[in-house]
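Model it.
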Amino acid sequence: MKSPQFQCLLTLLFTLLTTTSLAEVNQIEKYTWKKTTTAKVVRIDNPIGDIRLRFGGYADEFELIAMVQHIESVGHVQVAERVEGDTYFLGVERINKATGELIDLKQNDKARIDFTVFVPQGRTVYATTEHGLAEARKMRDPVVLSTQSGQVFLRDNKNTVQASTVSGEIIANLIDIESTEKQTFKTVSGLIDLWIGDHSKNDVTMATSGDIISDFSTQMKRDMSQEPNKHVTVKANGGGNPIEATSKRGQIALRVYPQ
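Modeled.
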């Protein structure tokens, strides 16, 4: 049988853990608002969280959902937005809780903010993260996503998509793409995983010093004096719309998605 002192210690420990957990949960806030603007270019920069893009309809109205987590004593993070000319900017700023002044964002802070942005038709979007997810689904217009080490995820988009990362992964389902413009994907050491339909007509070029995987017949050239040292071309179903995937050392995969 456990002593009363031991039981008391367990109760105190449980109380402390529960209180800490609830304190962290209570510092998660959700913000939702709408912005009407005719700006045709959208630039979103979030160095401390994720960015998710969604198609937002046909009017000139943006909708933003931001999940903000405050677990730091000095600063308070919030959404920063402005319109300059034909460009709508969305970003993050950090405010000193004591003075109300702007202070630098820090990657090692526990604060975090995640964006979900519903973008109306007729906008070209550039979205950048540091370590967070950069995702676009069902977008109707060109999208350019970049991240340092986060994952890039693309699905059900209709127009041109471009993605780049240093060490993160790029996963792109391209079966719904209607644009005839080149789709480009670049990493330094991260995986590029591309999916096209079994009836899609594409001219695909892939270059890396890592592994190349393809569900289609390939033609390869090697040059061990260069990096990347392998260059592969694919004519999917006779060729057609161009796709380019380039990495220094990351794996590149071209896969078939049954339609």
